[in-house]
Write a structure and sequence with these properties.
25% of the residues lie in helices and 25% in strands. It is of the alpha+beta class. The protein folds into 3 domains: 78 residues, Phosphorylase Kinase, domain 1, CATH 3.30.200; 115 residues, Orthogonal Bundle (Transferase(Phosphotransferase), domain 1); 110 residues, Heat Shock Protein 90 (2-Layer Sandwich). The longest helix has 20 residues. The protein is elongated. The N terminus and C terminus are likely disordered. Bound molecules: adenosine-5'-diphosphate (ADP) and magnesium ion (MG). Adenosine-5'-diphosphate binds next to helix 5 and helix 6.
Amino acid sequence: MSDRDPPGRGETSVGVPGYVLGETLALSSRYHLRRAVRLSDGLPVVIKSLAAEYPSAREVRQLEFEYRMLNKLRAPGVIGVLDRVKVGEREAIVLEAAGGSDLSSLLSGEIPLDLFFTIAVKLASALGYVQAQNVIHKDIKPRNILFDPRSGALKLIDFSISSELSLCHQGVVSVSQLEGTFPYMSPEQTGRMNRDLDYRTDYYSMGVTLFELLTGSLPFTAMIVNAAHAIGDRVGGTDQKGLIRISTRHEDGMVEISVADTGCGIPEAVRDKIFDPFFTTKEVGKGTGQGLFIARSVVVEKHGGTLTFESEVGKGTTFFVRLPACCSKIVTKTGGWC
Ligand SMILES: Nc1ncnc2c1ncn2[C@@H]1O[C@H](COP(=O)(O)OP(=O)(O)O)[C@@H](O)[C@H]1O
Ligand SMILES: [Mg+2]
């Protein structure tokens, strides 16, 4: 799109002084991201503007906050911010145009291990830097991480819901509203645990992100993929079909999610090994042996739930995830621990 194109949803016919607007990269209810070129030196940039014609005070505050955070952070692992402008009447910030694409493009589950570890190390070091600046991102997920395979550069983006911790290294922040993306969100960020939010919430989300990058699915979907594999083992090569039944129920303060399949079942001999890290009965390229190990760590250690199964060889398997349903009230503290 050029600045002379007719305006569409969230778009304006107004240009930005000093820039030539280019194609739209993303348009959501909140933000409009466009490529642009800075006239003074021809530098390619990305302009992130508020999409709503009449944005809420909160949306305006979040964009201002993001500008302030990015200015404060300024590091190779964090997207650079160049300017604050207006697109017509709409507030906007000018961002560095990073190469490559976000990590969602690598979620096929077939990522080469050396690339996985390159990304894992860079992501951990980018988050380590953010943490050292007393900032928590709060929305770490594949879509908020840009990676350029040619230069090897990794950049965190979208600090719109990030928080600044107090000057105290392990300070605490109040959480007044739920923000973030559920599958990647730590239990304390969802408010299900009576625990303050600190930098560890980003490492939790990093763990889920790396899990997804490695296995191609999220911890819960890993169980569904296992069910599909088990059915494939039983009926593969025939014209029979299998069934995966996912049910939920609420009982005694616990929410139970069960994933039942009509697959091959789990032989007695391996039943006490399936939650071990790297234990797999699958051929190379199909299994990593990480699914149940990480699912159990997420369900049992992080959420205080249980993960069990019942299985009959040749008939099928059912996994039961049980999680405490009570929502503890989030405690808001103002002090730190140091
Ligand atoms: N629904 C299931 N039916 C049969 N076997 C299963 C099922 N789920 C898991 N398993 C067994 O547990 C092992 C470990 O599973 P997992 O940790 O997800 O690793 P992976 O799927 O990469 O092998 C699998 O290799 C398989 O032998
Ligand atoms: Mg698996």
